[in-house]
Amino acid sequence: MEVLVRQEQENDKNYVYKVVKEAFEHAEHADGDEQDLVNRLRKSEAFVPELSLVAEWKGKIIGHVLFTRIRIGNYVSLVLAPLAVLPEYQGRDVGGKLIRAGHRRAKKLGFRSVIVVGHPTYYPRFGYSPASRWNICAPERIF
């Protein structure tokens, strides 16, 4: 499956909203607010436009990932959230392509780390490991 991963454009926003909403509609750990979270993050100081990416297949947006800045003490890192792929395209490495493209872009932009609050068996394949390994605890509410 030849998927194009590119930076989100202004005219993609409504499609991204729908993709995120559909992707999380029946997700086990979703709160139903993920699509609105994307809109809030776009308006925040944490937003990095170059790290809001879409996956496009045959001219249709089928996935989205957002990496935003987070300050950890004096250190600036990124948060990967949310990652969304339309249900009918899940399991085809669309999410993986979005994550890997985001990592490459983040590195070029000078970011050295990314954290994620997400599925414990999905993200380790991309190099993520539990923060508890380094005695790091997440605050009660990140977003």
- What is the β-strand count? 5
- How many structural units, i.e. domains? 1
For the biggest sheet, the summary is:
5 strands, mixed
Q: Percent of residues in beta strands?
A: 25-35%
Beginning-to-end CA distance, first to last residue: 33 Å
- Secondary-structure-derived class: alpha+beta
CATH architecture descriptor: 3-Layer(aba) Sandwich
CATH superfamily annotation: Gcn5-related N-acetyltransferase (GNAT)
The first-level CATH class is given as Alpha Beta
Radius of gyration in whole Å, from Cα? 14 Å
Low-confidence stretches: none
Strand order of the largest sheet: 1-2-3-4-5
Helix fraction bin: 25-40%
Order of helices and strands: EHHEEEHE
Mean pLDDT: 92
Characterization of the model:
The chain has 143 residues and is an alpha+beta fold. It has one domain (4-134): Aminopeptidase (3-Layer(aba) Sandwich). Helices cover 25% and strands 29% of the residues. The chain contains three helices and five strands, in the order E-H-H-E-E-E-H-E. It has helices at residues 13-24, 34-42, 94-108, and strands at residues 4-7, 47-57, 60-72, 75-85, 114-116. It has a five-stranded mixed β-sheet. Helix 3 (94-108) links the parallel strand 4 (75-85) and strand 5 (114-116). Helix 1 packs antiparallel against helix 2 (34-42). It starts with a strand and ends in a 27-residue tail after the last strand. The mean pLDDT is 92.
